[in-house]
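[step 3/7] fold_predict: job queued, chain A
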Amino acid sequence: KDYLRFKNRSLSYRKLFYKDLKLLRPRTANGKWYEPFDPVSGANFEENVGFIEGNAWQYAFMVPHDIKGLIKLMGGDKAFSNQLQKVFDIKQFDMANEPDIAYPYLFNYIKGDEWKSQKLVKKLVAT
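[step 4/7] structure written:
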């Protein structure tokens, strides 16, 4: 009984997944999407509704217990890989922030994209 309760709770992030942006988005108490919504608002400790010490990009992949489910939710391997790459391309990755600290390794879930993890980690270690 406890297992099912906590398993279902751990997958509740899916209710916050906004398909248009492939990001998590806060909802109001009545279940509507929170407005106004800026997916980059909240970085660098900026106060932000729905996220603490981060933004929608920095929390987009923070479901380490269900990466395969997130891949499916995002539209498959290619869509997931492209969205993950955007985090780095638009400079929303913060190596010092817990929500996205493991993001460089997530390319390992995509067959053929493992090299991206290796390249990113090497670059980050050098930086």
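[step 5/7] annotate
The beta strands are 17-18, 23-24.
The mean pLDDT is 94.
exit 0
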